[in-house]
Amino acid sequence: MENHGQKRSAHEQEDILDGVQAVLLDVEGTTTPLMFVQEKLFPYIKTNAKTYLNSHYGEDECRGDIEELRKQAEADKEASVEGVISIPQVADDNKEAVVDATVKNVTWQMEKDLKTKALKQLQSHMWREAYKTGLLQGEIYDDVPAALKEWSSEGKRIYTYSLDNVEGQKLLFGYSDKGNLLELFSGYFDATAGAKTEKDSYIHIVGEINVKSEKVLYITDLPTEAKAASDAGLKTVVVVREGNTQLSDDDKQCFFTVTSFEELCSDDSHKAKRVEGEHKGAKHEEASQVDGTKEAVHAGEEAAD
Ligand SMILES: [Mg+2]
């Protein structure tokens, strides 16, 4: 499919969704700004680890998290990983030393961009608390909820595929700045499905959701992921958003690109909106549609809780 970065006609947009039964979504850079992850989600852990560990130190879950980190540190030491910070055994009379070492270990792992299971476990528990208490709210691009709603109403199933674990993804969409969006999703895939740049991961996912690969549309910000999905037979769209890695001219020619999910809506009202996009009045219409979605998802929130 050729594209030179120009606006596509409504006809072309219909083509890409033609026959699509399931939409698989990347999260970071696609539904959610990379900045949210880099500037809110991860810094939250570094800033709050000490407070969190101190206040939950007596609880089994927190002690389990520390124990996993301690075991990981032992394994790292065994493997001569540079700079590893050991953690003492959890004990009632050892709280300060254990918390201090755990915070240092977590900070060290995050600075080295390590993604160990032990680190992810503590992070997910900390984020769960932060989302549930309103300290964190998942950021979702404005154009996303209306598109998900439309695809869902057309009978398309919607899935996510992110390196963030399934629980983290559910928190992000469940406690989002657009309300609880979980009812729009049929399922979630994470790193356990395989690497996002491997063709086999997409073959696995397509098998799991039981839809033919050519009837699945994968939307991502990364051409390397789109290539792997495309090699597995999926349709692909690369979303170009502010703050994402710039696409090369080759990428722009190889992949179908959009700057907003609105370009992937086939609904008549959206089509009309695109045609009238240049008119000033369109902005107002858009805003009220987003508000309408917000109300609808908020209504679903109580039931989901
Ligand atoms: Mg991404």
From TrEMBL:
Q: Where is this region: Disordered?
A: 273-305
**Gene Ontology biological-process annotations:** L-methionine salvage from methylthioadenosine
Taxon lineage: Eukaryota, Metazoa, Spiralia, Lophotrochozoa, Annelida
Alphabetical keyword list: Amino-acid biosynthesis, Hydrolase, Methionine biosynthesis
Indicate yes or no for the key word Nucleus: no
Which InterPro entries does the protein's record reference? Enolase-ppase_E1, HAD-like_sf, HAD_sf
Alphabetized NCBIfam families for the sequence: enolase-ppase
**Pfam families in UniProt:** Hydrolase (PF00702)
Using the record, list the residue span of the signal peptide; answer none if the entry has no such feature: none
- GO terms, molecular function: acireductone synthase activity; magnesium ion binding
Name the chain's protein: Enolase-phosphatase E1
